[in-house]
Each structure stands twice: as structure tokens, then as C-alpha cells.
Amino acid sequence: MPIVKVDKLSKAFGGIRAVSDISMSVEGGEIVGIIGPNGAGKTTFFNLLTGIYSPSSGAITYQLNKEVSSKSFKPHKMAKYGVARTFQNIRLFKNMSIMDNVLIGYHNNLDYGVVPSLFRLPSYYRNESNARAEVLKLLEIFKLSDKENEPASRLPYGEQRKVEIARALAAKPKLLLLDEPAAGMNPRETQELTSLLTWIKDEFKLTIMLIEHDMSLVMGICSKVFVFDYGMLIASGSPYEIQNNSQVIKAYLGGE
Is residue 134 domain-shared with residue 28, that is, in the same domain? Predict the structure, then answer.
């Protein structure tokens, strides 16, 4: 059974249809790429998947922690449903430490209430200690543990991207949505990220959907690729099929 099913999904802003009649499904354990020119509707599509926008028509259904449809999506509840994401424009708390930025992603996994927090009961300290230990493991994976106390603003752009991915993983999602994860990275960092995402998918038993313009990354790790153009889904298939699709070459790669 697909963990994500999208049926005739559309989103209009006034007279502009940013997403138009999209139908697709994603199986568990895949890394799926969403590609297309700037303005093709890719980020709008992610915003629909995470409840930031409500569909003008159509539906989204998740089969994750429980079945949930777009009729009940709320952005602040998506982590509980098993969905986490990063954004095209980095959204870190720049004056907070790297550790604290990633701890924010962990908050849904804490099981103490208001009273233990106010009175600093043993359950509060136990949860906080476990959270910091798990976040430190994530920082070690991203080779950031030696900078855990540094403000996020001091990191290079590529490392800020890694902090944002680590924060998303701290929520323990089953579906991870990455909006241009390689943006701002140099070739070496992109190559490291390519290997890391495959490892993360297997290690954390995740499904990953990513928007990306770096075709070497997309074609290197994605089992399936969906191509958007002018808000419409114009092609889907394996990386090989997409690379040899004449409609994709014309719309996205600039061919005749």
C-alpha cells in the first residue's frame, strides 16, 4: 500500500493554478525525486503535502502512523502523523546553538507534561537527558558534534543545511520531505550528502521525497522521479526513463 497517495490535487491562487490535477503515489522505503524548472509548482506541492496550503481540489492520503487525509491536515500536527520537512530557504534559529536547534525537532518525542516540567521532576530530567543523547548521535552522523554549542549563524551555508536535515530527523519521521537539500553545497558536500541520504533511508527506515535541481544527486539516489512543468505532472518513471523522455528533455533540459 502506498504511504502517500495524491489524487487529482490542484491549488489555485486567484486565477493562477500553481498545481494542476496531480495524481501520484509513493511506496514505503523509496527515495523519490521531484524535478522541474523554477516556478513549476514543486514547493507549492510540498506545502500542500504538509498542510501549509489547503488544496483547491483533490486529496492527499497518508498511511503512516495512521491514515490521515488532507481534510484534517494542520502544519503543527504533521510530525505526529510521521511527516517532517526542510525548506527551500533555511529556517534555523540563528542565535541558538546547533544542539538547541535540533532539540526543537525532538519535542514531539518527549513524554513528560507541564507539571514535571514546572517542578523539574525525575521524568523531566530523564527525558531531557535522552533527548540530548539522541540529538548528539544525529550531530555525529552529520559530522557536527564538535560544533554543538556554536550558534547556527556561524556555520557555513552547507552545514546549516545539514542542521536543518538533522532537526527534521529528530522528529523521527516515516516520511522526510527535503526541499533542495543540496542548495548552497559545493561538489564535495553534495557527494557526501548523496551517500548520506541513502544511508539515512536505510538506517532510519524512511521514505524520502526530495525537490532538487542537482541532477547528479537525483539520478544517483532516486528510484523514481516525477517531473513537474507549469504546475502539471508531465512524466514519471525511473531515472533512466526520465533522462530519455523527449517531453522532459524539451520542457526541463532545454532540448528540441
Answer: no
Separation CA 70–CA 42 (nearest Å): 17
Residue where a domain terminates, one of 123, 147, 171: 171
Domain that holds residue 123: 94-171
Decide which of 171, 201, 231 is a domain's last residue.
Answer: 171
Could you tell me which residues are beta bridge partners of residue 26?
Answer: 4
Dihedral sign of CA atoms 31, 143, 88, 84 in order: positive
pLDDT tens, 31-68? 999 999 999 999 999 999 999 999 999 999 999 988 99
Give the Cα-Cα-Cα angle 34, 160, 105 (nearest 5 degrees).
80
Dist CA 139 CA 150 (whole Å): 12
pTM given for the model: 0.92
Q: How far apart are CA 226 and CA 32, in angstroms?
A: 8
Same domain, residue pair 195 and 77: yes
Report residues of the chain scoring pLDDT below 70.
Answer: 252-256
Assigned domain for 238 exists? yes
Helix (H) or strand (E) holding 67: strand 67-69
